[in-house]
Design goal:
This protein is of the alpha/beta class. The chain is built from twelve helices and eleven strands. An eleven-stranded mixed sheet has the order 1-3-2-4-6-5-10-11-9-7-8, with helices on both faces. Helix 2 runs parallel beside helix 3, helix 6 crosses helix 8 and helix 6 crosses helix 9. It starts with 5 loop residues before the first strand and ends with a helix.
Length: about 425
């Protein structure tokens, strides 16, 4: 099934006229759709059909959008390449033989290939921005709490957000206008009220804007990526923005802190899939412990098993303070550094990914390489901030993305800045 963009190709029609009438939308397969399979890219949920719609799906239908399928993804959102899906890898439609990024690779590939006008992905540590950068499209990771997570199959609750992927900044902002807002089913959401007109912020006006470039998020990137990034900064300066370097010392520890926290939350969230209460049941013999073990061994992939084991270890007696507590302390430090930086700048900028798209199969045998590739994106999730990835040219014929990060609920700043590069 290599090359598949959709896990389930089943159309869900919109309801009446609205701002997305006539638009087709691909929905990542960890977002619940009533009556349509939602697998999370896992054999564990291969036959799961939700009895309800996620809030964002209800909003899409109410806006008149047509959902054209459930997009492929890394299993339970755990990956950077969309190769850990139980249903086969997705190939990058704009870079033959390369990955589309992950974990929302199917969503970005659908937009890049013209299989959908727009898409919804989820971003736990860069899973919208990474595939947007790798596929040469636009992806927005909203502030935590701007978009309801009701109906999203949980991976790491304190980090993940649903967000839009689109060909242009304005179209991504239009989709964000539809899905943003408070939800009685999700107590973490916030109603921005009259401040939620994000599409009109895509006016490209950066005259007088102060852009900070964290040196720590540029130093580790490949030379071709760095060249495209600085060309983008020169473009913004020519439009009246001011660009200068800043320092975020804490981000050196962000990847380690992120993976301890994310894996710990995953080990808790995925405990429900035991073949009895939820998930794959193979009709095994034996007591509950044996059935539980057999179901998870058969239905979970290697990366999911790895993260459950590491997360369980980090939360275990005797190791909680050594790992999980320290990771939360590092998270607080990352947030403090961002807050301090935004006292002096309007937005922060960096390469979205430090490398161009991997070759298919390149990183499967080296999970650490995959984890380290998230160095520029995970700090944003730790601090619960908004960010956008926009195309910024190519290196050796491969797409490069630039990331703009804003203060909490500063979506309009990053949308405006991103639109100036189009």
């Amino acid at each position: 099934m290599s090359g598949d963009i959709f896990i389930t190709e089943e159309t869900i029609e919109g309801e009446g006229d609205g701002p997305l009438t006539g638009k087709s939308v691909a929905v990542k397969d960890n977002i619940s759709t009533e009556g349509v399979r939602t697998t999370c890219g896992s054999a564990m949920l291969e036959e799961y059909v939700p009895p309800y719609d996620a809030t964002v799906v209800t909003k899409l239908k109410g806006a008149g959008a047509t959902i054209v399928g459930k997009a492929n993804m890394d299993e339970f959102g755990m990956g950077t390449t969309t190769e850990t899906s139980a249903f086969g890898a997705t190939e990058n439609p704009v870079a033959e033989g390369r990955v589309p990024g992950g974990s929302s690779g199917g969503s970005a590939a659908a937009v890049a290939a013209g299989e959908a006008d727009l898409a919804l992905g989820t971003d736990t540590g860069g899973s919208i921005r990474c595939p947007a950068a790798f596929c040469g499209v636009v992806g927005i990771k909203p502030t935590y709490g701007l978009v309801s997570r009701y109906g999203l199959v949980a991976y790491a609750n304190s980090l993940e957000q649903i967000g839009p992927i689109a060909p242009t900044v304005e179209e991504a902002a239009e989709l964000l206008d539809v899905v943003a807002g408070a939800d009685e089913h999700d107590a973490t959401t916030r109603d921005e009220g009259n401040n939620s007109d994000y599409a009109n912020a895509a006016d490209g006006d950066v005259d007088g804007l102060d852009i900070g470039v964290p040196t720590e998020l540029v130093e580790g990137a490949e030379e071709g990526v760095v060249e495209q990034f600085w060309d983008a900064m020169d473009d913004l300066e020519s439009q009246g923005a001011t660009v200068h370097e800043v320092s975020l010392p804490s981000v050196k520890h962000a990847v380690e802190a992120y993976y301890v926290i994310a894996m710990s939350e995953a080990s808790s969230n995925l405990a429900r899939y035991d073949g009895v209460r939820y998930g794959h049941s193979g009709g095994y013999d034996g007591n509950w412990n044996e059935v539980f073990s057999d179901a998870r061994e058969e239905a979970f992939g290697d990366e999911v098993k790895r993260r459950i084991l590491l997360g369980t270890y980090a939360l275990s007696a005797g190791y909680h303070d050594k790992y999980y507590k320290k990771a939360q302390d590092a998270r607080a430090w990352v947030k403090q550094d961002f807050d301090s930086a935004f006292e002096d700048v309007d937005v922060l900028a960096s390469p979205t990914m430090p490398v161009p798209p991997f070759e298919l199969g390149e990183s499967l045998d080296d999970p650490l390489q995959m984890y380290l590739a998230d160095a520029n994106t995970v700090p944003v999730n730790l601090a619960n901030l908004p960010a956008i990835s926009v195309p910024a040219g190519e290196t050796d014929g491969l797409p490069v993305g630039v990331q703009f990060i804003g203060p909490k609920f500063g979506e309009k700043q990053v949308i405006r800045t991103g639109s100036a590069l189009e």
